[in-house]
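Hi there,

I know you've been waiting on this one. I reran it after we fixed the sequence typo, so this is the corrected version. Both the input and the resulting structure follow.
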Amino acid sequence: MSEAKVALVTGANKGIGYEIAAGLGALGYRVGVGARDEGRRESAVEKLRAAGADAFGVPLDVTGDQSAADAAELIERQAGRLDVLVNNAGISGEAGPGWVQDPTTLDLDVVRANVETNVIGVIRVTNAMLPMLRRAPSPRIVNMSSSVGSLTRQADPEIEVGPIMAAYSPTKSFLNAVTVHYARHFAGTNLLVNAACPGLVATDFTGFQAPRTPEQGAAIAIRLATMPDGGPTGSFFEDDGVVPW
């Protein structure tokens, strides 16, 4: 098997996830394209390969225990190793006019779905991949978060943080907390775990109404996924530096 480093990016069939996969592929990583939809997944793999990346598809629904276990088995079989995990898959759930999720009228099923995908899904996939990551010489885990998960920014009336998203935003705060605990667990090792904010990116997630491109949004994740040993862990970053919790 190749000695190239191997990365898995969840939700990699489009948008920021695809660009993270493309960026890592361009750096010589063998990239697993994690996605639920077979057609979109294989289309993304073909596009990445056409651009020169060594990419392969990984059927993966982050809400399913068996799906995560099967994905880990496939990567072990096809690549024999895993050096980088980027937990990018996420949902926002239904919102009302103005892209608002009103806390006083929240559909609890929307809240549950957000937590299941954005938080529990990350834990599920991370733990399924840990046996391989533990064997890697310099493993990296990057959890794609958002500045809307920053309690400091959300609570500051002087900072423009966008509409109230009472189902989605708290899942990113929850994810940030989970990131810290993984980092604490692996303190003193080469396994570095950080959260990344891509900024407001024009994807179907935002209705393509945003100032940043998917390539720009992917840059911070690629940087954290490829940083050298001794780098930060248990932190939250955007392009301009650390994001306050």
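Quick highlight: The mean pLDDT is 94.

Best,
R. S.
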